Amino acid sequence: MARGYGKSQSASIEAHARSAERRGRCLRPDDPAEAALLRQRVRGGTFVSPRRGLFARTRYWESLTPADRVLHVMRSVSDSTGSWGFRQAPAAIAHGLEVPLLDADVLNVRTSRTRPSGTGGVLVRQDPSHPLEFVMANEARVTTIARTLLDCLSELDFPRALSVADSYLRSRQVQLDDLRSELLALHVRGRGEREALDRALGVAKWANPLSENGGESYARATMLSLGFAAPQLQATFPDPLRPGHVFRVDFCWAAADGGLILGELDGLEKYYEPEMTGGRPVAEVMSRERIRESKLSLLGAKVVRFTFSDVLHTEGFRTLLNCAGVPRR
Hints:
By secondary structure, this protein is an alpha+beta fold. The chain folds into 3 domains: 8-63, no CATH class; 67-204, no CATH class; 226-324, no CATH class. The chain has 16 helices and 11 strands. It has helices at 7-22, 32-44, 58-62, 66-79, 88-94, 104-108, 145-155, 158-172, 176-184, 190-204, 214-225, 269-272, 274-277, 282-298, 308-312, 314-324, and strands spanning 47-51, 54-57, 84-86, 111-112, 123-125, 134-137, 140-143, 232-238, 246-254, 260-266, 302-307. Strands 8-9-10-11 form a 4-stranded mixed beta sheet, sandwiched between helices. A 3-stranded mixed beta sheet has the order 3-5-4. It has a two-stranded antiparallel ribbon with strand order 1-2. Helix 5 crosses helix 7 and helix 7 packs across helix 10.
C-alpha cells in the first residue's frame, strides 16, 4: 500500500491543511514526502495546486472568491521570499482594490527577475538598478499603492484599469485630483515609464467614485470604448407612487429627443446572495424589480437592462445600446 493512504498520514495532511486555511494561506509541504502525498491527492481530486509547491483542499478552495484565492497564494509566497514582491493586479487586490476578470496568470504568479515594472510578470525581485519599494498589505509583500496604481492603470486593459481607478477613489474616499497626485508623485525613470505614466493619467481622467463595484466600472469602460457618451452614475428619481421616496439607477443618459435612458446592470447576486436580498425569497425580489422598472417607465424613461455577460459580448452590447438610443460621444 502506498505510504500516502495510511490513516496517520491522512490525518496529518488534513490538520496541516486546516492550519493553513485558518491563516488564510495555501498548504506548503514540510518535506518531499508530504509533497508527494499531496500530489497524489491532487490527482485524486481532493486537493488542488494553484501554484507549484502550494496546495489546498478542493472543497475549501472552491468556496473562496477569486480575490481570496489570489491572496492565499500571495501570502504563502510572501512567507518564503525576501527580495521578491507582487505588483500590478495582485498588488491591487492586496491593497483592497477591485480587479474584475482575474485571469489564470494571476494565480499562476508569473515571475520577472529583471524588470520591476512593465509586463514581465506579477512577482518581481528588487533590483538595485531599478529601485522598487515594497510594503506589507493584507499579509502580502507588494508594491506601494502609488506604484500599484501606475502599473495597473498603464498595463491592464481599459475596463479592468478603470475598475482599479474607480475602486481606489471609492475605497479611499478621495477625489480624482488625489489619484492624479498619487501618480504624479512617483519618480518615473526613462521613456518607458514616462509613457506608462501618460497612459495611467489617461485612464485616471475617467475615474469616478460613484461606480459601486467593479462590474459597473467594467461596463462603463466598455461603453466608452465603444464610443458611447459617459453616463451619469447613480442618478436618483422620485417614486411616482410613494412621495418622498426615490429610485437610484446605475447609468443615465439624456436622449436626443429630450427623454431619459436608464441603464441597469443585473447580477445574479441581486437575486440569490442574502446580503443583497435581505433574506427575502427570490420570487419576491424579482417581483420587486419588475415593479421598480414599471415605476421608472411611468416617469417616461426608457429602461435598458443588461448582464455582465452581455457586456463581455461587445458587439451585442453595442447593438443593445444603439437600439436603446444611447447617445455617442
